[in-house]
Amino acid sequence: MGNRSPILEVRQLQTHFRSGHGVVKAVNGVDLTVYAGETVGLVGESGCGKSVTSLSVMGLLPKPAAAIVGGTIHFAGRDITHLPEKQMRKLRGNEMSMIFQEPMTSLNPVFTIGQQMAEPLRQHTSLTKRQIREKMVEMLQSVGIPRAGQIIDEYPHQLSGGMRQRVMISLAMLCQPKLLIADEPTTALDVTIQAQILQLMKEIKQKQQMAMLLITHDLGVVAEMCDRVVVMYGGQVVESAEVRTIFDQPRHPYTQGLLASMPNANERKGELKAIPGSVPRPDEVGQGCTFAPRCSQAMERCRHDRPPLVALPRQSCRCWLYAGEEETALEEVAHAT
Amino acid sequence: MRPEPLLEVKHLKKYYELKKGWFSPKQQVKAVDDVSFTVYRGETYGLVGESGCGKSTTGRAILRLQEANAGEIWFAGENVARLPYERMRRLRRRMQMVFQDPYASLNPKKTILQILTEPLRVHGLYSPDERVKKASEILKIVGLSDYHLHSYPHEFSGGQRQRIGIAKAVILQPDLIVADEPVSALDVSIQSQVINLLLQLQREFHLTYIFISHDLGVVRHITDRVGVMYLGKLVEQAQTEKLFQEPKHPYTQALLSAVPITHPDDTRERIILSGDVPSPLDPPQGCTFHPRCPACMEVCRTEKPPVVDLGEHIVACHLYV
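The joint structure predicted for all components is written out below.
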């Protein structure tokens, strides 16, 4: 990673949902930086705000229920926090694109693969029909789809799950984006297919020098793919570091708990180290540290005051345990790089 | 000393017929095709494989939630596959199931008390008061409290629901529990809680599990023996550690090598299988795995592989003949 110019910079992002029971702070002050050519893993469990963060970046929040109420998002040096829809459309699918978890539901069942893949090319390029078709076949072949020329005229239901995910990837890659956001790209797939897809994504990333934000709950996928990791809990970043630091010296009790609960870290047939309690709903998050109710090392202070993101030598960590270790406990130095 | 077999499945077959119009010939999907295995009392037997390999169908056929087309299922000295409906119903007291989706497997219109006492009521066990007592006892065992007895399923999180699903299966004190992907729908931090609960209940009630899962990390942790399925067939079976250390079948080798690494510095020789699982409608001739097999020989294309016993390690592959 010689290139240190940030592609994506998210600062103090606040995305709130309005619901019948009041405001839900789904994303509550998230900082995130993705540099050109690197893969950042965004890790967390359901409801931690990782998907909402990515939707905020893509400008795909369900309106009017959700809105960005604070913070900024810079993409390639440009502020896109409140970019009008028309200009957002020029970016989406062109300079940044997204792959979703469910390849079945994210492809339109009533259009052929070719019709769907032609759309970004018609939107963002001035290729002729024939050129578009050639480009699509070429792209499908490069993601390892056999008989690409025929598949273009087939419908999504005629393809298997792995094939559909390959189509989604080629769709996202058509305009050679600078940033690819992949939201649980392999969760719905079998392990052998997952291995194929991860391999493919690595190759593409290398070839195109693209940055990737990989959203996942699977620490194995993180170990496999990422350069840096950002761990989220309850709408906030709780730890962020290089991937090896996360695995070797996790500092936040939540990250430590997650790693300790992986079956291979425990004796076979023995009791797994588990994190007690359950993931809080966004509307349950009270004062103080969001993880305090489940934390084995929680102190009195944790229940009342929200900890700041502490900049440690090798990572940043949102925990009172380390508050003394570094005086520059500032939100501004939130990026362990 | 060999432990006593609790369940013996012999040549189990489950075919589905697809109608493709009036005149075209009927097609058959061989979801489970001649599967045999034995589960011993007190052990955890894992069934692994990718989606569509028939592992869930096998589990459901054992409980007769789906009728098998052929084969025998011996449980407690009786061939379950042939039992009349009423007797089967009574026998289910001793064999229970835990389902994957805790959101879909609990009746949303019933309170937890009703859900938990229903199996007792159906089997005519205990008096009504005792049933309530039993329900509150079991709730405590699975880590919830009396306080939850009058709540409805929607008031619980996924992990809590799965605890209730497990409580519902355990309340009858069965001998055998078929757990079909019991932790797949749960968050990582909750998964380990539920796995711990399953292990704890096994110790407490001497349960025997058939643990169906695609998550090989969990399977390695919890099971004693594992059977690997591919396209309706059992391709390999061995003790868990043996299977994970020395997989014999090329499919098992590829499957295990595909599991994501656990640390960024790990390196793993990866066997990337080409292509997808073939359609079970039209499985390949000979060995069903041969089109994707890196060690495919001439004989694999034409002849079905025999089942070879390598001493408590069974593998269906021509390589080991």
